[in-house]
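Incident log, support desk, overnight shift.

02:14 A customer reports that sequence design results differ from what the structure should imply. Their input is reproduced verbatim below. On-call engineer (initials T.W.) acknowledged and began investigating.
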């Protein structure tokens, strides 16, 4: 974990209301693991804001400079509004990489990635890390086609905006049916569970609760149980285990999301007690 002042190298509104920002941060670009996050001091706000590492430039093979990381974030309040207004050359105070990320078990071949909305952010870095060794399917659920990630699986559109995820099967799902199947990402999850050795998910609380119910049903009916890791997003204070502001109760006792997570096993969380 390192705190540094880093330069913004680009910042675009990649999806309406969602910004893709590249930052020159060589140490984090080399060490950040999928699922880990950084915190950013946004303007004059005391509390730093946590953001998943979305991409890192050694892996893009595209136009981005060496030693850069990308954040993908939705403008939801004053802190993220401030961040969305930073331009090329502005310097921002970042701290990271923080937390524990996703892990891939030995023997796994087929990985199913499930993203709800902005939950796509950490899963793209996981896909970038894993695509040379594993078969990947990425389900992205969004409200409309315009809110889907600008995904390129052809390898042709390599740019900072559309990372090359050649070979990844992309399955869009939209609530209004404007692209892919109509509904939620979890509606089609069961179609892939026989194929998947492991599932990795990031999205809203309702998505996790629906997945936890599916897992419980499978357990009761003695069906195949696919191990699932989820990235939890909660309000944070310090971001590195000092304030206990992010503590949650799990089946394995009290855990700090920032230090013990943000990635947890789906079945370890007591979902009725989680508020995000
Ligand atoms: Fe302070 Fe997790 S945010 S302990």
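02:41 Re-run completed on a clean worker. Output:
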């Amino acid at each position: 974990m390192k705190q540094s002042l880093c330069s913004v190298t680009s910042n675009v509104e990649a999806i309406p209301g969602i910004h893709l920002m590249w930052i020159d941060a060589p140490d984090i670009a080399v060490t950040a693991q999928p699922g880990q996050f950084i915190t950013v001091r946004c303007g004059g706000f005391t509390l730093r804001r946590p953001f998943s590492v979305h991409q890192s430039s050694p892996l893009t093979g595209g136009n981005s400079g060496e030693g850069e990381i990308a954040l993908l974030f939705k403008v939801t309040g004053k802190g993220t509004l401030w961040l969305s207004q930073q331009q090329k050359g502005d310097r921002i105070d970042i701290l990271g990489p923080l937390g524990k990320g996703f892990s891939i078990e030995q023997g796994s071949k087929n990985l199913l990635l499930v993203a709800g909305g902005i939950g796509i952010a950490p899963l793209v870095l996981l896909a970038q890390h894993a695509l040379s060794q594993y078969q990947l399917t990425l389900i992205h659920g969004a409200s409309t086609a315009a809110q889907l990630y600008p995904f390129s699986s052809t390898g042709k559109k390599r740019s900072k905006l559309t990372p090359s995820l050649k070979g990844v099967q992309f399955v869009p799902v939209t609530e209004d049916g404007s692209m892919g199947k109509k509904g939620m990402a979890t509606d089609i999850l069961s179609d892939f569970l026989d194929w998947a050795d492991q599932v990795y998910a990031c999205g809203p609380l309702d998505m996790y609760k629906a997945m936890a119910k599916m897992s419980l049903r499978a357990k009761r009916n003695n069906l195949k149980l696919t191990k699932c890791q989820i990235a939890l997003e909660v309000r944070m204070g310090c971001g590195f285990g000092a304030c206990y502001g992010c503590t949650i109760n799990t089946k394995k006792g009290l855990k700090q999301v920032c230090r013990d997570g943000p990635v947890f096993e789906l079945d370890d969380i007591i979902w009725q007690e989680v508020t995000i």
